[in-house]
Design a protein that fits this description.
Helix content of chain B: over 70%
Number of strands of chain B: 0
Largest sheet of chain B: none
Strand content of chain B: under 5%
Largest sheet of chain A: none
Number of helices of chain A: 4
Distance between the termini of chain A: 32 Å
Number of strands of chain A: 0
Structural class of chain B: mainly alpha
Oligomer: heterodimer
Order of helices and strands of chain B: HHHHHHHHHHHHHHHHHHHHH
Number of helices of chain B: 21
């Protein structure tokens, strides 16, 4: 299996993880509603918050390659394909840079939580580095996805986030 | 240069260059935030951006967002959109203006389910335009009512854009939902009255083929897929209004209801379930990511003291509340040329919200106001998102569509004037709720 195939599988896996954590928000909220009816208090809103964070950040790379992150498309109708390619490379480079910056710093942040043994404020007292770790993984995959698109562009191929009808060759 | 000025210039130039060159909005927001920190704040940008991203990504109020999106994704795959026209048409057949009202009511229903006016406009238009054409409706009214109606529905709960505003402005999402009801209904009434008046005064142009009459039972049969959706939306609103459920809980019940509905009309399959879940995950990921990124810029802008300086400046030049609102309206209309509703709200929040609070404007009222203005921007020439969507569906020219949408844009602006002069239209229901 080529590296590209492995990456595509990874993005899809991240997409499924994102979907799983989204469904978990609903399951946890439902559990809370049912327990309240049975007069058995269960507080899951904090865990729901962690699931939301995990869902959002695991979804980043998958959403990127599906072309669903919003951007302004002033140059969509640009006639020069060469200029458009250069612009796309610039966008991916900035994306990779910002994502790498965020990954590195959130990783340091999560490491500090681990070192100081930070616990979540709720009754569950979850070690904070666990939910924070999902951000690191998701942002790391986003960095990889941006670099992957950049490499594709440099090799003269289309980035995965543009639809097939876009022409980047003259 | 004075540091506040310097930071403002840096932020504006960076945002402009990055956004205009096509960099993803969320990425541009983090980059601009980091740059402002790096040059103008005495703290390590990496550390504060990491903690800001984390704090903004697990807020409990935001958990309602993916759930309502998922509910909408299930409903729109369960045959709702296919039955929207068939289900509404028999009821509206005899109204003056006839099936043109399907655009208005259909968008009202669809928008409660879909997240954005662009999606609403496209979904309703895909069904109603061919049907209306077949019956010989006036082209300009058909397109105008669609362009206009695609926008106001975002006021009707459960509305994604309201959740986003609630999280950004730290306002209760439940109260925002309730605040949107009266303005939303008011706009439906305005639009439908305009269509009816037009039909009554334009005898010849308004003539269209009328569908044969139908018995009451037959009408009910036609809308059997639509009525449960309406009931579901009403139940959600009622449970939030009555304080029985938080928006997150109401959304969870909404998902169960949507799944039950899909099971009942046999559209629920494993593939459909996964498809709706993955699609919801992508949409909510996109929105939540720009919200976390906007938090970075917000904190940076706060550190650089820009909101306070701006608020002082506004006070200094003696801009009245109405003057401020006017300036903001122009600003939103301009940004609306290139951006979709939620992005406009998130992008402007870091600077605009502190100004609103400083000017003593009720943030709850401003939320409704901002949503209407931003939706105006989607049908304002020369470039509006909804105009482009209708252009691709009908093949009409952009100016032709703009002209057709103009009366409806006028009604939106009229509604803005109304809620400004009578803020009670917005605040009446939420005020009842707190007592």
């Amino acid at each position: 299996m080529t590296i590209a195939r492995v990456l595509d599988r990874l993005y899809l896996l991240c997409g499924y993880l994102s979907a799983f954590f989204l469904a978990m928000i609903a399951v946890l909220t439902l559990a809370q509603i049912i327990c309240r009816q049975l007069a058995f208090p269960l507080e899951t809103s904090e865990l729901s918050g962690f699931c939301l964070a995990a869902s959002t950040f695991f979804g980043l790379s998958h959403t990127l390659v599906k072309g669903e992150h919003v951007r302004v498309s002033l140059f969509e109708g640009l006639s020069s394909a060469a200029l458009r390619r250069t612009l796309e490379m610039w966008c991916c480079a900035i994306g990779a840079l910002v994502a790498a910056f965020a990954t590195y710093n959130v990783a340091l942040f999560a490491r500090d939580s681990h070192t100081f043994g930070d616990l979540s404020p709720g009754l569950m007292a979850v070690p904070m580095w666990i939910p924070q770790g999902t951000l690191v993984l998701g942002l790391g995959m986003l960095t990889i996805a941006f670099l992957h698109q950049l490499v594709r562009l440099m090799a003269g191929r289309m980035p995965q986030y543009l639809d097939k009808t876009t022409v980047l060759e003259d | 240069m004075d540091p506040v000025m310097g930071a403002s210039v840096l932020m504006i130039v960076l945002l402009f260059v990055l956004l205009a060159s096509g960099v993803w909005i969320a990425v541009a927001l983090v980059a601009a935030g980091a740059a402002v920190f790096f040059f103008y704040a005495p703290v390590d940008p990496g550390q504060i951006i990491a903690s800001t991203i984390w704090d903004a990504s697990w807020s409990w109020a935001l958990t309602a967002l993916p759930l309502f999106i998922w509910m909408g994704e299930i409903l729109s795959r369960s045959g709702l959109s296919a039955n929207l026209f068939g289900g509404l048409a028999p009821w509206l057949r005899r109204w003056p203006g006839g099936l043109l009202h399907v655009n208005v009511i259909g968008c009202g229903v669809m928008a409660a389910v879909a997240g954005s006016s662009a999606v609403t406009c496209a979904t309703v238009g895909r069904m109603s335009i061919p049907e209306l054409r077949k019956r010989g409706y006036n082209q300009s009214m058909m397109v105008g009512s669609l362009a206009g109606a695609g926008t106001f529905g975002l006021l009707i709960p459960p509305s994604i854009i309201m959740i986003v505003y609630g999280v950004l402005a730290q306002q209760s999402v439940a109260r925002l939902f309730i605040a949107g009801i009266l303005p939303g209904l008011m706009l439906i009434a305005l639009y439908s009255s305009y269509i009816a008046l037009w039909a009554l005064t334009h005898g010849k142009e308004a003539v269209a083929q009328v569908d044969p009459p139908m018995s009451f039972v037959e009408k009910l049969r036609r809308s059997r897929d639509l009525l449960p959706v309406l009931l579901l939306i009403v139940a959600i609103i009622a449970s939030i209004y009555g304080g029985l459920a938080t928006p997150t809980e109401a959304a969870t019940i909404g998902i169960l209801g949507a799944l039950g509905l899909a099971l009942w009309n046999r559209s629920l399959t494993w593939a459909m379930f996964m498809d709706s879940l993955l699609s919801a995950a992508r949409i909510s990921c996109m929105i939540a990511f720009i919200i976390s990124s906007a938090a970075c810029l917000s904190v940076a802008v706060g550190f650089a003291d820009i909101p306070r300086a701006l608020a002082n400046w506004v006070q200094g030049i003696g801009l009245s509340t109405y003057g401020l609102l006017f300036v903001l309206t122009i600003l939103f209309l301009l940004v609306g040329c290139v951006l979709e509703g939620i992005s406009i709200l998130v992008l402007s929040s870091s600077v605009v919200l502190p100004m609103i609070v400083a000017a003593g404007i009720d943030p709850l009222w401003f939320g409704i106001y901002a949503v209407i203005v931003i939706e105006c921007a989607q049908i304002t020439p020369p470039v509006g998102f909804n105009l482009i969507i209708i252009k691709s569906m009908t093949g009409m020219g952009i100016w032709q569509i703009t002209r057709a949408a103009l009366p409806f844009l006028g009604l939106l602006l009229f509604a803005i004037v109304l809620i400004t002069v009578f803020p009670e239209i917005v605040t009446f229901l939420p005020d009842l709720m707190s007592n």
